[in-house]
Design goal:
Blueprint (H helix, E strand, L loop, with lengths): L17 H15 L6 H8 L3 H5 L5 H22 L7 H17 L3 H9 L4 H26 L9 H26 L4 H20 L11
Helix pairs in contact: 1-4, 1-6, 4-5, 4-7, 5-9, 6-8, 7-8
Length: 217
C-alpha cells in the first residue's frame, strides 16, 4: 500500500492522489470506524490540510461512500458473473483469483466491511446495507443455480451463500492475528494455499453430485 507523504521542513507536501486518499481512508476506517475518524485525522495522516482534502471529497460521508464503491464494486461484479455457465474448475479458479487478488490489493477492506456491519450510525448502516443487500442477492442467485444439482435444499441456499462469503473474507480479516499467533510469515505461500483450499471447497460444496449407479440384476 502506498505510503503517505509527510510534510518536510521548508517544503510543501505533495498533493495526494485520489487513490492515496482512498487507501488512507480505507485503512483508518477499518481500524477506527467511521465515527472514530475525523477529516482532520485523514488530512494529518497525509500531511495536508483538511481544506485540501475537501478539494477531492465534499465530506466524510462522500469519502466513505467512495471507499465502499472502490472496494465492493469489483466484488459485486465478480460475484454477479461467477459460474454463470456452471461450476467448472476453470471458472471457479478464475473467480476466486479475481476476488482474492482484489482483497490483496486492498488489505483493509475485509476488516472495514466487518466493522461496518457492526456500526450503530444510521448513515453508515444505510450505505453498507445497500452494498451487502446487493452482494447477498447476487450471491444467492449464483449459488442457487448450482445448489440443486449439488444436493442442497432451497432453504439452505442463503446459508450456503453466507458461508462461502465468510470463507473468502475471513482469511483476510484474520491474517494479522494468524501471523502473530501461528507464525505465518510467507504471505505468498499462505495465500496460494488459501486459494487452493477455496477452489476445492467451492467445487465440493457446489459441484454436481454423481448419480448413484443402478446395478442391473
Amino acid at each position: 500500500m502506498p505510503t503517505a507523504k509527510v510534510r518536510s521542513p521548508g517544503r510543501a507536501a505533495a498533493a495526494p492522489t485520489r487513490e492515496l486518499i482512498l487507501d488512507t481512508a480505507e485503512r483508518l476506517f477499518a481500524a477506527h470506524g467511521v465515527d472514530g475518524v475525523a477529516v482532520r485525522d485523514l488530512a494529518r495522516e497525509m500531511g495536508i490540510t483538511a481544506s485540501s482534502l475537501y478539494n477531492h471529497f465534499p465530506g466524510k460521508q462522500a469519502l466513505y461512500q467512495a471507499v465502499l464503491e472502490r472496494g465492493l464494486g469489483p466484488i459485486l461484479e465478480a460475484v454477479a458473473t461467477a459460474w454463470a455457465d456452471g461450476v467448472r474448475p476453470d471458472r471457479v479458479q478464475a473467480t476466486l483469483a479475481a476476488l482474492t487478488s482484489h482483497l490483496v490489493r486492498h488489505p483493509h477492506l475485509a476488516g472495514l466491511l466487518q466493522r461496518a456491519l457492526l456500526e450503530d450510525s444510521p448513515t453508515v448502516r444505510t450505505l453498507i446495507e445497500t452494498w451487502v443487500a446487493s452482494l447477498y442477492r447476487e450471491g444467492v442467485a449464483v449459488v442457487r443455480a448450482a445448489a440443486r444439482d449439488a444436493g442442497w435444499e432451497a432453504d439452505e441456499v442463503p446459508h450456503l451463500a453466507v458461508a462461502l462469503f465468510g470463507m473468502i473474507f475471513a482469511y483476510f480479516t484474520d491474517a494479522p492475528a494468524l501471523r502473530r499467533v501461528l507464525g505465518w510469515e510467507d504471505d505468498a505461500r499462505a495465500l496460494a494455499v488459501q486459494r487452493r483450499f477455496l477452489e476445492k471447497a467451492v467445487i465440493r460444496l457446489l459441484g454436481p453430485r454423481p448419480r448413484p449407479v443402478v446395478r442391473k440384476r
